[in-house]
Structure formats: C-alpha cells, structure tokens
Amino acid sequence: MKTLAFTIVTRNRIHLARVLMQSIAAEFPEAGRHVLVVDRCDGLFDPAAEPFNVTFGAELALPDFDSYAFVNDALSLCCLLKPAFALHLLERCDADLLLYADSDMLCHARPDALLEVMRDAPVALTPHVLTPLADIAPRTDNDIMRSGAFNAGFFAVRRSSEAERFLVWWLAALKRERKLDATFCHDQQFLSLAAVYFPAIAVLRDPGYNAAYWNLTERPLGRDPAGRLTVGDRPLSIFHYSFFDVATPNLLAHRPPLIVPAGSELMKDLLRSYADRILRAGIETCRRWSYAYGCFTDGKPITRAHQEYYLGRVWDEPGRNGSPFEPAFRTAGCHGLKSVYSVDRPLPRFIRWLRGKLR
After folding, report:
1. What integer pLDDT is reported at residue 337 of this predicted model?
2. Which among 232, 260, 286 is the end of a domain?
3. What's the domain range around 176?
4. What is the pLDDT of residues 263-285, one digit of tens each?
5. What's the pTM?
6. CA 289 to CA 45: how far, in whole Å?
7. Residues 239 and 313 grouped into a single domain
C-alpha cells in the first residue's frame, strides 16, 4: 500500500515536525511525508527546503476557516484540522493509507504490525492503556476516563468509504463545537463514540504503538539481542514524548504539577537523544516565532474577550463579511457601530445610547 505520514503544527513548532519526519524517513523511507502548518509562513522558513511537503491551514477547503482560527487557540485549531487535512490528502494524493502522528512523536521502527492490520481495517485507533493502571502510574483510570479511551495523537485510515465516513463524521462533530477545549479533551473524546458508530474500526492493541509516560507501567522498555528497542516482547515503533521539555531532558514529562522522572537509564538515554534531535532541528529559532493567528493583522493580541464576543455575537450574524483578524472588520449588527477589534474597550456613553436607539 502506498502510504503517507502526516502531522500538524504551528510554525513555531515546525522543529518537532522535522524531527518526526526525519525518523519516519529513516525507518519507513517509502512513506510520503506531509505537514500541515496551521498558521502562515510570513517568510520565517522556506517550505520548499523542508524534508516534507508543506500545506498551510488556509489552503484547506474548510468554510469559515478564519472563524475557526480566530476563536480557537493553537492546540485546538491543530486538533480540529486533523480530519480536515486527512480528507484533503485523500482527495489530492493517490495514497492508499494515511498515518497520523502528533509532532511530539518519534518513529523508532518500521510500523509493520500496523501495516498488517490496515490490510483489512478502514481505520485504526490506539487506546491510551491496555490494562488497568497500576497505583504507581502517573495517571489513573479516572484520568483516562476524562481523556477518552483512545489517544488522538496516532491513528491510521485506509482509503475506503468507511474511512471517509469516519473522517466526515469526526470533522462535523468538531465543527459543531466551533471552539474546542478541555470539555471533550479537544478532539479526543469523540473517538470513544467512533468505535461504536463505525464497528469496522480496529483497536490497535500492540504495545509498541503510542507508548507514553501514562502507560509505561504496563509497557516496560528494553532492547532485543540485536539492540533494537522493545516494549515487552514487541518492537517499539512509535513513542509519544508528550509533555517533554528540552530544558529538562531527565524528565519524561514536565508540565507542572505533572512531573514524571525518566526512571530507567534506557529512558534517560532516549530522552537525551530526543532533546539533541530537537536542538539540531532549530528549536532555538522556531520558538521565537509568534503564532500568526494569536493576534490581529496589526499585531494586537487576540484575547478571550475577542474570541467569546465573536463566537457568541458575531459568528451567526446574517451578512457577516470579511476577516475577523482585520481591525477594520465590523459586525453586521448595530449598524457597524461595534467592532470585534475594540470589544475589549468600552464604548463611549453616547455611542452606547445611540446603539440602543438603532437596534
């Protein structure tokens, strides 16, 4: 099967995409490599010089893209665009199989077990855990319930009508929310329903896929006689370096109050190697770039007040026209006397009185 691997990042995290795609190129060289950069380039990097194909969020055929970009933060927009980009790739490319991996993952071995599963399955999802969590685990079963049965950081879809139905359903569910947040763990909890709605979905129970800080108590790392990384008696194919901080390479996860030590010497070696890859991929430069959709076109930061006003008062206005990122954008109501840009500034008393008269 012709296979494409893809991920989604903001421009200030493109160094992670480089590291991920370099690992895929090394372990699975015949797979195509595509990256969706949700915001703009603005001359900060050269898409043609990257070791993968680059698509920008605005290039997707997603109605109201500017609205979704305006009301969502960077993480939420990346999550919302996963099924949209998968559908885009299926439409534009001739691949038989798409593999999605979060940018903070690394491919440590060719994904042969997954490829075998995908000969028959239209979609494969990876559960957070395979067995009840031990008391010593950094997460509990209660935490997993809040996050959802499946981790949305890694999945596969094979070109088929069932896979397309799944992606269309997932995208519609996310668009219906408009603004994603922790309520449904962004895009993730919907996958718990997907396994019910689409019974042909395969649950990938191989522990070598999506190993991460939350499930290592059930997936001990090791090496086989040839020196290859293993999880129990299975090859380690995909490791998820979730919440890894290059500034603390001896910690597996560092997002206070969550702090997970590396534990074994093998894990410490993997983390130091991963940190080195990230540094060589240009994190010091990339992290200085701002998120393009975090501000108006004149550089003024977009606040929660702007997002909530647009979401609650403007999105459904008839006759809405223009981009909310433009300072000159005006709401259709109140005869244009209220702008999204100035919602964080109170209107003069006379204008408030006049606005009431014009309603």
Report:
1. 54
2. 286
3. 3-286
4. 899 999 999 999 999 999 999 99
5. 0.91
6. 10
7. no
